[in-house]
Fold each of these.
Amino acid sequence: MVDLHQVAKRYGALTALRDADLRIERGELLAVVGPSGSGKSTLLNIMGTLDRPTSGTLRVDGFDIGELSDRELSALRAAAIGFVFQQFHLARGVPALDIVADGLLYQGKRLSHRRQAAERALRRVGLGDRMRHRPHELSGGEQQRVAIARAVLGDPPLLMADEPTGNLDSHAGGVVMELLHELHAGGTTVVIITHDRDIAATLPREVRLRDGRIEHDGATR
Ligand code: ADP
């Protein structure tokens, strides 16, 4: 699904990621861990094609991203990758159904089709009875589930989550983790950045970063 070979990312004099070799097979579930500033978000942004590497090669879903134009890269990202962040990034005052439906805007689908797909996605995350609620009428955990529904609307094979439980209490965080496990069980490849040791320990594989290097990559059990 994702294959990095000797990938580096530099910001001016600072090297945020170096010598990264990483292969993620289709259908895997893994944690990316490491102290603050160790390069976790940089790695996720590169794997998610939000950022291009400074050097090295990266393949995502079979495509060598160095050979794609920015336009082709956006198309690949829209079709293949869903994102969930610590901040939920939900438009204020907009009902959950429309927030999720807007996730398909760029694929040129009709409104009725988008709404139906959004309803299915919201039911899938257990929010079938919250479709008309606006973000401020939802709990933090529910807001994150709306963000997940939006991320998986087009059934992307790859889901990237950057500290998805970082703003949630432990109960709501547990519900969100359960949902991510369910998506994985359904065949989605799921990559989760977390600083929470307990969460990382529940995932089959852990990639640990330190000072921009992958210092450990292996099975947790
Ligand atoms: P983490 O997610 O593990 O906290 P990051 O990947 O965000 O780490 O950051 C790794 C390093 O790269 C940090 O030193 C950070 O300050 C730096 N960095 C990240 N993004 C940028 C950027 N856009 N411009 C300059 N430096 C950056």
Note: Residues 26-53+69-219 form a domain with the Rossmann fold fold (CATH 3.40.50.300).
Amino acid sequence: MLKGKTALVTGSTSGIGLGIARALAAQGANVVVNGFGEAEVIAGIERELQAHGVATMYHGADMSKPPQIEDMVRAAESRFGRLDVLVNNAGIQHVAPIDEFPPERWDAVIAINLSSAFHAIRMALPKMKRADWGRIINIASVHGLVASVHKSAYVAAKHGIVGLTKVVALETATTGVTCNAICPGWVLTPLVQKQIDARAAAERLDSDAARRALLGEKQPSLDFVTPEQIGAMAAFLCSPAANQIRGTAYNMDGGWAAQ
Ligand code: NAD
């Protein structure tokens, strides 16, 4: 379905981004991998993606640094001649009550989880519009729709990216470019494992009990969403069936936001 097209997935060295990179490569897209990690691990990810018969490149742009984002988008366009799919996925978390929230962590969460998407979109959109085809997929969160305590920066950034998604969708509504957000609930990735470990330590639980407590509090299915499921949704949003899906915030959250 995506043969000959190029997808840039930010934060694709781990978790959800890696699941999306795999799903898009399986559809035939060349993939630009981004994110932190050891060179050997990243080379392994590229080899795995290339097994689908696609080309890959890695760019290590720090998504909190606009000039590096600009360089990555330009490098992708120059290597593949085009950038058709942009998945804004890179993200971090910091958990603390607002009156104890370190200002530098606030700035980092907003920069990586929200402003990076603005910069990548503004760089990539002109060529997508010229080609009259493009897909922009923002990985928001159920925290783009509802809040939880101690996550002020994350919830603000994720609500922000849902708003940004709607604006971009309206500004591209008469073109072949679409923009949508995916809003996952709990997905068992390193980002969430840190929260499970913190809970296990604070409540003196073993890892399994901490995991069950985390799910039981918010996610009615009592089961994690998987990176593969989110990858499949991203691939669907790239399909012709999704041509008129514009400006949505699609929750995949085991029923979290239905409560
Ligand atoms: P993860 O920690 O497994 O992966 C994060 C990725 O982002 C990694 O590749 C990392 O290297 C990259 N990254 C972090 N900071 C970066 C920076 N400054 N520059 C470039 N890359 C950077 O996390 P994940 O759970 O896969 O999260 C991916 C996205 O999904 C995030 O936006 C997160 O908010 C969102 N999300 C996660 C969950 C969940 O339950 N795990 C739920 C909803 C939304």
Note: Residues 11, 13-17, 34-36, 62-64, 89-92, 112-113, 139, 141, 184, 186-187, 189-192 surround nicotinamide-adenine-dinucleotide (CB under 6 Å).
